[in-house]
Amino acid sequence: MLDEELKAINVLYGALKQFPQSYALLHVQADFLRGKGKLEMALRLAKQAVNCAPSEFITWAKLTEVYIDLGDHESVWIKATKPTQGIVHQDRYYDRLFLSI
User: Fold this and answer.
1) Which has the closest alpha carbon to 47: 14, 20, 25, 23?
2) H helices of 1-101, where?
3) Nearest to 55 by CA among 21, 85, 97, 94
4) What is the DSSP letter of 101?
5) Would you state the CATH architecture of domain 2-99?
6) What are the structural domain ranges in the chain?
7) For the whole model, what pTM was predicted?
8) How many CB atoms lie within 10 A of CB 65?
9) Is the pLDDT of residue 88 over 50?
10) Three-state SS for 9?
11) Mean per-residue pLDDT, 53-77
12) Are 70 and 30 in contact (CB under 8 A)?
């Protein structure tokens, strides 16, 4: 299992070197770190993903999930209400976000 995890980390590292502004790759890395309990590092990556794609609702949703993991409910409210303009498919993400609070 550890071998496979190391291979996956190397693949992700290479992909991020090629595409450092890819919010999808940043989300994969943030989710990996969340699973390892490295929430502050995951928060930094989630914020970076929002900076790379501020008009994508999913980046805001991921940032909110990390804040929920951290127990920072004030930031959850602030971040969850921020991306309200120009988002077409936000309804499907709201259910998932707020059911976990």
Assistant:
1) 23
2) 2-18, 23-35, 39-52, 57-70, 73-81, 91-99
3) 85
4) -
5) Alpha Horseshoe (1.25)
6) 2-99
7) 0.74
8) 22
9) no
10) helix
11) 89
12) no
